[in-house]
Amino acid sequence: MIIDAHAHLNAPPELYAYQASLLSSRGAHGQSAAGVTDAQLKDYGERTVAVMDSVGTDMQLISPRPFSCSHSASPAKIVHWWTSAVNDVIARQVSQFPARLAGVAGLPQAYGESPAQWADALEQAVTGLGMVGCVLNPDPSEGTGHVSTLGDPWWYPLYEKLVELDVPALIHSGSCQNGRESYSEHFITEESIAVLSLLNSEVFLRYPTLKIIVAHGGGSVPYQIGRWRAARAHPRLRQGHLLHESFDESLRRLWFDTVLHNPLSLELLLRTVGSDRCVFGTEKPGSGSAPNPDTGRDFDDLRPVIEGFDFLDDNQKKAVLSGNARLLFRRLNSQLRLVM
Q1: Where are the beta strands (DSSP E) in the chain?
Q2: Per-residue pLDDT averaged across 122-138, rounded?
Q3: How many other CB atoms are found less than 10 A from the CB of residue 16?
Q4: Which residue, among 76, 261, 64, has the nearest Cα to 174 in the 3D structure?
Q5: Cβ contacts of residue 115 below 8 Å, gap of 6+?
Q6: Would you say 177 and 144 are in contact if contact means Cβ atoms under 8 Å apart?
Q7: Residue 245: which CATH number?
């Protein structure tokens, strides 16, 4: 089985028309249904499955499209209403394709609210809608203000709920409104900050079973790892670090997806953190769904890349392509047992 652990919802324009209405009215007309029919969801779900079949993917874990999460919108109620609508659509589409799709929830991370409020929404998504994990935006301000980094105790209520429910969070920022970065550039910035913040804090001492996946191969961290190794080992700089271990050992407290679209980058990730800490992800269809002139395949067609790595044995390849995801997303196993 090939499990793509990083993919996003494919839904009709009516869903985003509902979002536009919320944003333009600022919620003045109240919360209403998004107006997406089951027939539309089936049609768009079939399109997703056709893409999966074209590259040999058996199952995708689908989450909200991060650039559309609108976490910096105000008032906060429209962020909650919009997130609820998207999660409901994901759950409905998953129910139509339970052997091919599983849901990863968005959180209503309204800028200015606290993670304790988002923790309640996570529980509802997991226990009420059957979601197997969530997406976590480390910057709900979307580049417009200050948010504590993920190593800060401010985030602890959400971590406690993740541990209680035994579900992983995929670190994936959303849009960027500050004009200095595109949202894709913002992803890499925030993922890098997230890794370093978490590993230079006491988060994993307090929550050793916390499951955090960092999207897009960990941002810049694997590429810049020499700097962080040196900082951890430096007699002056290492003082104050709470994890009394090498940076490489700390790095293996996290998980990483393979959404890199470049074989050499993916090889570096696998060699740096180990095949047992990587989950297959493509984000297909997405920004990587463009033809690579060197291979004739799309950049995000990553299964042949992983299968072609001669430094991985068959068991390691199987772990990356499905086994690690099943270890992380334990609720996914329950869903698979029901449909197989």
Answers
A1: 3-8, 59-63, 101-105, 133-136, 169-171, 212-214, 255-257, 278-279
A2: 97
A3: 16
A4: 64
A5: 154, 155, 156, 157, 158
A6: yes
A7: 3.20.20.140
Write the DSSP symbol of residue 70. -
Q: How far apart are CA 283 and CA 117, in angstroms?
A: 28
Q: For residue 283, which phi and psi values (nearest 5 degrees)? A: 60, 25
Give the three-state DSSP class for 170: strand
Specify the pairing of strand 59-63 against strand 3-8.
parallel
What are 315's two structure tokens?
């068991």
> Is the N-terminal amide bond of 291 cis, ω within 30° of 0?
no
Q: Quote the domain boundaries for residue 320.
A: 3-339
Distances (CA, A) of 328 to 68, 111, 141, 169, 332: 26, 28, 28, 10, 9
Residue 260: helix, strand or coil by DSSP? Answer: coil
Q: State the CB neighbour count (10 A cutoff) for residue 295.
A: 12
Tell me the one-letter amino acid at 87: N
Residue 223 CB neighbour total at 10 angstroms: 15
Selection from 190, 154, 158 nearest residue 172 by Cα: 190
Tell me if the pTM is above 0.90. yes
DSSP label of 67: G
Q: Tell me: the pLDDT tens digits for 82-117?
A: 999 999 999 999 999 999 999 999 999 999 999 999
DSSP secondary structure of 277-319: GEE-----SSTT-SB-TTTSSBTT--HHHHHT-TTS-HHHHHI
